Amino acid sequence: MRNYCYIDGQNLHLGTAGTDPAWHIDLYKFRIYLREKYKVDKAFYYLGYVQEGNKIEQLYENIQNAGFILVFRQHNAAMIGKKKGNVDSDIIFSIMKRLQKDQDFDKILLVSGDGDYKMLIDFLIEEDKLEKILFPNKKFRSSLYKEIGAPYFSYLDDKDVQRKIALKKHK
Hints:
Low-confidence stretches: none
Helix content: 25-40%
Largest sheet: 6 strands, parallel
Number of domains: 1
Strand content: 15-25%
Shape: globular
CATH topology: Rossmann fold
Number of strands: 6
CATH class: Alpha Beta
Distance between the termini: 40 Å
């Protein structure tokens, strides 16, 4: 089995570090988890692009070093810092393009709780191309996903999953 994973980076960050209690994902552990649990061959991590700052450059480097393929949503200079990454359409287009070109993969895994992906998820289920949608947390998953069956989703904030992928706190 050879699956591809698409990660909405902003949604993942807000759904973990932006929660109460906040927690952070260890990117290396997360990449291993995706490979071992879901047979993910390629994992695409989508983010809005910001040009400046050592901290943000370190984040980009950490994502790539953990084995993710970093994909940027570029904004014009006037928009930088004023809006989130807004990668939804880029992810949807990339998945549909791969499906249309019959790329060499079996199924898609999506990491996001954003309801903008609902039509895509329905289509992937219909085509038997959805492995799973991983919601960063239970509280902020879109209500649009209420109707999809349990075999099609999982939560990253599930205690067993979180234990496997969380960044350990250093004292």
